[in-house]
């Protein structure tokens, strides 16, 4: 009897220390167990093969409490969840949220601290987070480190940018994990590297591909009241460790139970299309908290913006004078100021003539003479216009033309100043009927010592979205931390930049041709991106013969980006005169939709190519975008996504035969063919090129 009892006891202990949960299709499996004296750990298998081998979990607190060992399993609970929900704006009219869940309730033996680890397993990936219920003693705590590990089995090819706490505006590097080394980076490829940048630290999301062809993406979702997670890479053993961004005194996060961490996510598939098409990050966020979403509408806009980047005009009114000591009425104009009443009316006329929704104006308000790099506490008040910009006159003119104005708030990194003025700034917007604001965070953060990716700034970005919702204002943030699906909860957070955008092509070594083929696998997983496509004058020598910079795409690829780079807020970023010379190509920008009933990822390979088709919300029209990297590409696209029995007129905007992003980028051709869902399109993409197609039903 003793022998039988011991066997039963061992079996019972194994049940307590090992738990597993599979995805709905059973392709993915997560195994959790306590190892090494009660240390939480997990593994992830895909189709029976290990992807994440035994990896430790846990938290370290500032009081030296280590919540990464000496745990016992108090209980476990398995559940399944399957729903469909409708986003206010999105890539699909309805999103399926289907997963199996496992909750492990842990208690630490010595401290009696309770910590739950929750796993959600989808068909396309795994998510887990830490949850802290109300405690007997420890209810307020300071996190000093998060001990989350992702131990891989192979030397994956990785698409990465350095783990800079203050900016994600870098071009992507494509190397093996074993070759990641920030010390070897050309500093001209990025901006604002922090001195704390680790030799092998990268930003999430980290997109990877194994030698055997497995695609893995590590990211996070629902970052609320918590810092952004970066990843430290052990280049020898392919082990990744969470690295939370610190605040000014080195602490990572201040929490009060009951509370939760963000979700750590691992997307896994043999098909790259599953990564691009995943809605997992959105699904892991809380449902919409807004009662009224009637004001949240897609917008296509033009604006006073690109002309400053190419040097035609300036944001500032008075140049390099010591203008901060002068009143707005005493400023002496340089004559190059872009945001004038007359210039704004020109853009309003162009928007109205071509059916655009809005006009953005940057540089309208006092303060631009002394805004960048000076780390000043107060630069902008967000309410005082320059003398040559008449708010009332511009508003009346826009209303007459049925065009909405888009506000611009550049904070120059002085977040404390922005929050002090925020309500007055929104009051001004409501007075003049501005439905949306573009915010900017160029420069070091004030309060001093904080980082763009720290808890303080994450809270700020989310606070501005919530406060904007109180005023029924849509928000588009630039230079913010990258989104992690918060737009599901607050859909008025309509877009963000949070990556290296199109403007870098105007004044730096630019974005390589592969850049736009990587962003949908990385930055865009967390939410819509305001990439500002649509540049037609590809070479900057057009504006200044001494300039050598250029956009690293063909003109046709700039059109295709309106489909491949999802956003319900899209800018036609070039100057009106650039479009007026090529109205036949501009027609696609006028026609392309912003909100979608369905999205089909037809082809995908990170760093190489991407082809996406989308169906217009509430209509039978479809749009297709195909892009490639620096290599030319031929592809045949089956049109079986089109409605059966319906004929369509396909208008194809494509690279001319001799097009090339570097040597001949602006040549294109337009052809029209009749197609059905049984048809196939043969596409020829030039180096750095693309194809854009509109499908109009034939009645």
UniProtKB/TrEMBL annotation:
Glycosyl-hydrolase 97 N-terminal domain boundaries: 21-287
Highest taxon listed in the record's lineage: Bacteria
Domain Glycosyl-hydrolase 97 catalytic: residue ranges: 305-499
Protein name: Glycoside hydrolase family 97 protein
Keyword field contains Plastid: no
Domain Glycosyl-hydrolase 97 C-terminal oligomerisation intervals: 595-695
The species this protein was found in: Flavobacterium taihuense
Alphabetized UniProt keyword annotations: Hydrolase, Signal
Signal peptide region: 1-18
Record-level Gene Ontology MF annotations: hydrolase activity
């Amino acid at each position: 009897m003793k022998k039988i009892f011991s066997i039963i006891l061992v079996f019972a202990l194994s049940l307590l220390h090992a738990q597993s949960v599979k995805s709905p299709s059973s392709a993915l499996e997560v195994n959790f167990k306590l190892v090494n004296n009660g240390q939480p750990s997990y593994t992830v298998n895909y189709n029976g093969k290990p992807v994440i081998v035994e990896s430790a979990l846990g938290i370290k607190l500032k009081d030296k409490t280590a919540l990464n060992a000496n745990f016992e399993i108090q209980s476990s609970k398995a559940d399944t969840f399957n729903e469909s929900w409708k986003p206010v704006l999105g890539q699909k009219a309805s999103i399926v949220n289907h997963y199996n869940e496992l909750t492990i309730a842990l208690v630490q033996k010595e401290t009696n601290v309770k910590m739950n680890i929750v796993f959600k397993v989808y068909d396309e990936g795994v998510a887990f987070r830490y949850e802290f219920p109300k405690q007997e003693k420890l209810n307020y705590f300071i996190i000093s480190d998060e001990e989350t590990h992702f131990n891989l089995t192979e030397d994956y090819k990785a698409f990465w940018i350095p783990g800079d706490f203050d900016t994600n505006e870098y071009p992507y590097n494509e190397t093996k994990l074993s070759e990641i080394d920030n010390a070897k980076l050309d500093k001209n490829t990025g901006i604002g590297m922090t001195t704390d940048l680790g030799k092998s630290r990268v930003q999430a999301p980290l997109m990877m591909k194994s030698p055997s062809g497995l695609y893995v993406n590590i990211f996070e979702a629902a970052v609320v009241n918590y810092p952004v997670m970066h990843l430290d890479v052990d280049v020898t053993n392919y082990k990744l460790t969470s690295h939370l961004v610190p605040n000014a005194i080195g602490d990572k996060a201040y929490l009060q139970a009951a509370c939760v961490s963000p979700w750590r996510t691992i997307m896994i598939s043999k098909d790259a299309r599953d990564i691009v098409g995943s809605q997992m990050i959105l699904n892991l966020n809380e449902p919409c908290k807004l009662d009224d979403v009637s004001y949240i509408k897609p917008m296509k806009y033009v604006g006073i913006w690109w002309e400053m980047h190419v040097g035609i005009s300036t944001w500032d009114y008075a140049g390099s004078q010591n203008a901060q000591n002068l009143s707005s009425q005493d400023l002496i104009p340089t004559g190059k100021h872009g945001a004038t009443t007359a210039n704004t009316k020109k853009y309003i006329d162009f928007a109205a003539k071509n059916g655009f929704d809005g006009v953005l104006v940057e540089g309208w308000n006092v303060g631009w003479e002394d805004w960048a790099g000076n780390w000043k506490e107060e630069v902008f008040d967000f309410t005082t216009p320059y003398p040559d910009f008449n708010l009332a006159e511009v508003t009346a003119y826009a209303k007459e033309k049925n065009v909405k104005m888009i506000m611009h708030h550049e904070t120059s990194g002085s977040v404390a100043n922005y929050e002090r003025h925020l309500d007055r700034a929104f009051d001004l917007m409501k007075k003049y009927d501005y439905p949306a604001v573009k915010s900017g965070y160029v420069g070091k953060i004030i309060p001093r010592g904080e980082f763009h990716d720290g808890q303080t700034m994450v809270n700020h970005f989310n606070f501005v979205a919530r406060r904007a919702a109180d005023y029924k204002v849509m928000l588009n943030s630039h230079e913010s931390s990258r989104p992690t699906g918060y737009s599901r909860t607050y859909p008025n957070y309509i877009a963000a930049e949070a990556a290296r955008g199109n403007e870098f092509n105007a004044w730096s070594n630019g974005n390589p041709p592969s850049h736009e083929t990587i962003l949908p696998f990385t930055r865009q997983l967390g939410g819509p991106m305001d990439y500002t496509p649509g540049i037609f004058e590809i070479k900057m020598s057009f504006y200044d013969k001494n300039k050598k910079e250029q956009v690293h795409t063909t003109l046709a690829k700039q059109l295709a980006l309106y489909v491949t780079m999802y956003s319900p807020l899209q800018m036609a970023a070039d100057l009106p005169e650039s479009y007026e010379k090529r109205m036949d190509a501009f027609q696609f920008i006028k026609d392309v939709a912003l909100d979608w009933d369905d999205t089909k990822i037809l082809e995908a390979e990170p760093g190489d190519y991407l082809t996406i088709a989308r169906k217009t919300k509430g209509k039978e029209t479809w749009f297709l975008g195909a892009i490639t990297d620096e290599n030319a590409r031929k592809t045949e696209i089956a049109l079986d996504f089109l409605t059966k029995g319906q004929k369509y007129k396909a208008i194809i905007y494509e690279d001319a035969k001799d097009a090339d992003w570097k040597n001949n980028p602006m040549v294109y051709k337009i052809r029209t063919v009749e197609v059905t869902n049984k048809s196939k399109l043969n596409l020829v993409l030039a180096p750095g090129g693309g194809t854009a197609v509109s499908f109009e039903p034939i009645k």
